[in-house]
């Protein structure tokens, strides 16, 4: 969004008719905060550190010359770009009209501002007032919040300026338009009128990746597009995207994509649809990148971040398959060849409409182990060899991880739990238990009643189980996050052996609640990282 004097005047006029009410304020210090759903307006003000803020599908760099607004129903996440945590203020507020009815706040996403030291001082004051137990301090916090909004809105940058970010944005656009040419760092640095070394450092700092990596990404993405459009020869394809050597292009493509150009082309000749995230996890293990799949920065964060450029059609990934009608409509227009479905997740009318669109391959869910699901999917798609190779590789990985974990954990008791709304659950997900018990053979605590799955438990029962390590999955919505915040302040929780020894590990729903081959593979990697010194920060918005 470009801010002009007219736009700023319009914002001011709208704000005259609105009433803004402070709800909460806090300073967040975090290395990674997975995408979570919000139920109020939030203002973000960056204080320190280098990182990125995800608001729904938009990726913003945290920096001192911009503020960010998110509104109810969006999802937000924060990611540091170095080992140092990022620090940012999150100020949550309600928006009402004079009539006390819900109103539309005129600002969203990134808003460029001139840096103002007073803004950070006001953020400190608002946060301190909100934490106070004194009602009068809460009143002062509301006043400071309105002053903060006034200061920030007065500092909106009206016109684009010639600054390093603007220059780099133009260089980035130039790369996207001229990727076929033999571009060099020296040439691009001359265009930016800075030294090559400074250009390299500034590009990496600004975009989180090197200029060469970005050029490679643009070339590979355009190669994928050309592969889908025609039967172009590999040599001609390489030349069209800026590579003079087809063999070097093939090696580069495989390094970036994970499969050779020939396998990628073979897989993309058929329009295969992964109708659920678990099916997507099986297809990726078989080196099949589908034409369509559920992708969203919260519900399927990993797949969205890594494969959104590879998968042309993004289906809704909203939980409980609530958007199935829009998915069916998209597929009807796309005319796929094959739709691979989890048999247990379809509504009757949904199944009938899908069967009118393309051939359906049904994969049993609840009654079949993920290994058998993978083998059946491979058999139906003619990828048995890929399934055998993947399972051998996975078994080797888990054997090595098992030996490593047993050396360090010995007989330590491990408890896996989840928090949803006001309840705690033990052994909450199939894949989680398969990996921890069957594949890694850890000493996993089954809970008070081993014959039950997903059983609710009290914090006092957690104390009776006496775990050495606790894996905690918190549903990323306000009520569950609030319960997690409350649990951490309870005396019973703080007295747990695992808590006292700093052996509580936050795990995300992606991959730990997905039941697929690819998700289990990622669980092993994640567990090794977390049990070898990673200590995720506890946070709440």
TrEMBL record:
Transmembrane annotation, as ranges: none
Annotated organism of origin: Brevibacillus borstelensis AK1
GO biological process assignments: iron coordination entity transport
Record protein name field: AraC family transcriptional regulator
Residue span, Fe/B12 periplasmic-binding domain: 271-535
Matching Pfam families: HTH_18, Peripla_BP_2
Cellular localization per UniProt: Cell envelope
Ranges for domain HTH araC/xylS-type: 169-267
One term of GO molecular function: sequence-specific DNA binding
Domain of life: Bacteria
Gene Ontology CC terms, in alphabetical order: outer membrane-bounded periplasmic space
Family: Belongs to the bacterial solute-binding protein 8 family.
PANTHER family: IRON III DICITRATE-BINDING PERIPLASMIC PROTEIN (PTHR30532), SIDEROPHORE-BINDING LIPOPROTEIN YFIY-RELATED (PTHR30532:SF21)
InterPro entries, per database record: ABC_transptr_periplasmic_BD, Bact_iron-sidero_bind, Homeodomain-like_sf, HTH_AraC, HTH_AraC-typ_CS
Chief localization: other
